[in-house]
Structure formats: structure tokens, C-alpha cells
């Protein structure tokens, strides 16, 4: 068993990595503030990537379902009608979520007034 004097260097670094040392003062706060700004700007640019990923993932799932329907001999019209009905179901759920979010936002807005 290694003695406490011979700790690996990475153990010492992890102890102080979560908080800035007190001697940094305002410089440490500015550094964390600029890191927060960088994360915020990266997250703003990520919404386009999220939408692209959702659209491409949905197209891949629809293509896979269509291909499975063809492989197992399910009629094309039946496969497409099932895809459309599942799309409508998902859109209804999304609409319900958006309506709920709008209602919560409206209640918060009215409480502030």
C-alpha cells in the first residue's frame, strides 16, 4: 500500500480543479464567467444541429420501417398509413407539450403583473 507522501500527481490536481484558488480573486471569477459565456454561445449554435439530428433520425426511422415492411411483405399502403398515423400521434404529443409550456409561461407572466 503506497504511503500518503507518494500520491500520484493527478490526485493533487483533482482536489483543486473544481474551485478556483482564493488568491486568484476577480481573475478567477472572470475566467469562470468567460467559460460560462463560451458554453452559452456553444449551446445557442447547437439548436440547429439538434433540429438537423432530429430530422435525420426521423427520416432514418421512417426508412427503416418502410424497408422492414417491404422485407416482411406488408402492403405499401398499409405501411405508409401506419407511418402517417404514428406521425400524427407524435405531433399531437408535441402539440400538447407546447400547449402545456405556453400555459405555464402564461401563468408565470400573469403572476408577475
Detailed description of the structure:
The chain contains three helices and no strands. The protein is mainly alpha-helical and 113 residues long. The protein folds into two domains: 25-74; 75-113. Helix 2 runs antiparallel to helix 3 (76-112). Mean pLDDT is 78; it is low at 11-20.
Helix content: over 70%
Secondary structural class: mainly alpha
How many individual helices? 3
Low-confidence region ranges: 11-20
Give a concise summary.
The chain is an all-alpha fold and 113 residues long.
Question: What tags apply to this protein structure?
Answer:
mainly alpha; single chain; 3 helices; 81% helix; 113 residues
SSE diagram, text form:
Elements lengths: L8 H8 L9 H46 L4 H37 L1
Helix pairs in contact: 2-3
